[in-house]
Amino acid sequence: MNLQPTIKNKKVKSTEEQWTACYCRLSCDDDLDGDSNSIRNQKMLLQKYADENRLRNVRFYVDDGYSGSNFDRPDFKRMMDDVDNGRISTVIVKDMSRFGRDHILVGYYTKYYLAEADVRFIAIYDQVDSETNPDDDITPFKNILNEMYAKDCSKKIKAVVRAKGNAGKHITTIPPLGYKKDPENKEKWIIDEKGAEVVREIFKLCIQGYGPTQIARILTERGIDTPVVYFHKNGLPTSLKIKDDSEIWDQKTIVRILENLEYTGCTVNFKSYKKSYKSKRRINMPKEDWVIFENTQEAIIDKQTFETVQKIRENKRRPTDMGEMSPLSGMLYCADCGKKMYLCRCTTMKQAEYFNCSSYRKNLKRTCTSHQITVKAVTELIQDDLRRTIQFAKSQNERFLQTLQNNAEAKTKKELKENLKEIETSEERIEKLDKIIESLYEDKVEGKISEERYLKMSDTYESEQAALKERVRTLKSEIERAKEQDDRILDFMILIHKYSSFEELTPEILRSFIDKVIVHEKTKVDGHYRQTVEIVYNFVGAIDKPLFGDEIDENN
């Protein structure tokens, strides 16, 4: 907002042609004041005052649901534009707090901006009138009190929201697309089936290999309502307003839907915060600081599908020079340097597509080799391995399950051993640091070291201690996740039954089953080149191929 008044009232010849602006404002900060601050009551009061004082051409400017600590309000800005254009002669508010709760800005607008534009300012309850009492010394103190009130209200509201969020209740006032508030319990979300169908379609398209931009285009072409249009059409609450482009899906909207954990039936609180009650900008919190409560409402998207989509989102695929994208892009990794492999196209091999180690391709040939493998070869390997895995699971279910459990236990035991050892070492160091810090304090008290030296050394040790404590918490969380391996095996078996037979390796099947593919460099054995490829499955990791052997009945 331009804070310098630019008066354009040359067209207005008399005050009789100008308006009396009656400004009304209400926000959640004012709920404690009861019905006295309602927009309806403010309008009645201002109209009555204008009539009694023969103030003509009354026009109302209303900001309902906007905080007084922020002046970026639509009707307030519209009123100031009309002031700049010389349309307004008088501004009336119920009291100074309706105009705003930032004492500096309130003082600026009332004492300078409106004064420079030759606009009379009246605050009825505060007995402020720039025409009859231009040198009022009490008003600035009232503005300060209003700001203090706003700050106090903000603290109270934050405390209530914090308590509500920690109790597992939704602190988001408006449910996302696919959910609505339960008429019998406003704190509970229930599925809005029509909106949920759109959400499911978005996740389905993502698994099929479409990116957010492509999904947005598909939904727009199908004529599917965007969230803002859908909410307005169906009378659902929303803070969004209809615009000229509201019918067009945006890729950012698609991304928000795809990354919304609440679609799995969770309540996710404290994902963002505001630095100040005056600020409108929200800052995202790290995911580890989110407070998550599971199974608080019926899920629209199952956890398997959600996790698969997140893996796809982590491995955002890049188009080739021809503008196409392979479903395998982002999934292949070099066995030696660990970097992702890039999709390339060879013009000398009938446009054959192949993957190369990204380190090698970036002219870092000294650090790694090409690890080249064609798309056709790796696709056939995955397809064959997956079919044999499904076949093995169907024909020898018990043995297959035992194999997965044995593999998981072996991996878990190794990780647990390493994590437990690190936890033990870290906790010993934490205990030792406690003693060091205690000893430093005693040295400071006895005058052996200066205050400055003590503060510097203690800060260093305390920082190290804090980092170790955080690492211990992370390791303990990993141990807990390792104990959930049985659930992950069950998730994998559900996938097996879902796709018990398939004709083609579609992007959906590929992303559902495969976590990553590790490609080794070719080696020459007996005059023939051989290449090892490791296929790592979602939920269960790598499955040893020798287990299949000749024991599988191919006719099964």
Keywords summarizing the entry:
556 residues, alpha+beta, Rossmann fold, Hect, E3 ligase catalytic domain fold, 16 helices, extended, disordered C terminus
Q: Any overview of this molecule?
A:
By secondary structure, the chain is of the alpha+beta class. Among the domains are: 15-152, Resolvase, N-terminal catalytic domain (Rossmann fold); 179-313, Alpha-Beta Complex (Hect, E3 ligase catalytic domain fold); 406-487. It is 45% helix and 15% strand. The protein contains 16 helices and 20 strands. Strands 2-1-3-4-5 form a five-stranded mixed beta sheet, with helices on both faces. Helix 13 packs antiparallel against helix 14.
Q: Which helices and strands appear, and what pairs or packs with what?
A:
Elements: E1 19-26, H1 39-52, E2 58-64, H2 74-84, E3 88-93, H3 96-99, H4 103-116, E4 120-123, E5 128-129, H5 139-166, E6 179-182, E7 185-191, H6 193-207, H7 212-222, H8 227-233, H9 251-258, E8 267-269, E9 272-273, E10 283-284, E11 291-293, H10 303-314, E12 332-334, E13 341-346, E14 352-357, H11 358-361, E15 373-374, H12 375-395, H13 397-445, H14 451-482, H15 485-498, H16 507-513, E16 514-519, E17 523-525, E18 528-530, E19 533-537, E20 541-542
Parallel strand pairs: 1-2, 1-3, 3-4, 12-16
Antiparallel strand pairs: 4-5, 6-7, 8-11, 9-10, 13-14, 14-15, 16-19, 17-18, 19-20
Helix pairs in contact: 4-5, 7-9, 12-13, 13-14
Report strand %.
15-25%
Unreliable stretches: 31-35, 545-556
- CATH top level of the domain at 15-152 is Alpha Beta
User: Would you count the extended β strands for me?
Assistant: 20
CATH architecture of the domain at 15-152: 3-Layer(aba) Sandwich
Fraction in helix: 40-55%
Give Rg in angstroms.
Answer: 33 Å
CATH-defined fold name of the domain at 15-152: Rossmann fold
Structural class by helix and strand composition: alpha+beta
Tally of individual helices: 16
Q: CA-to-CA gap between the ends?
A: 73 Å
Q: Mind describing the biggest β-sheet?
A: 5 strands, mixed
Shape: extended
CATH superfamily of the domain at 15-152: Resolvase, N-terminal catalytic domain
Report strand order across the widest sheet. Answer: 2-1-3-4-5
Average pLDDT, rounded to a whole number, is 79
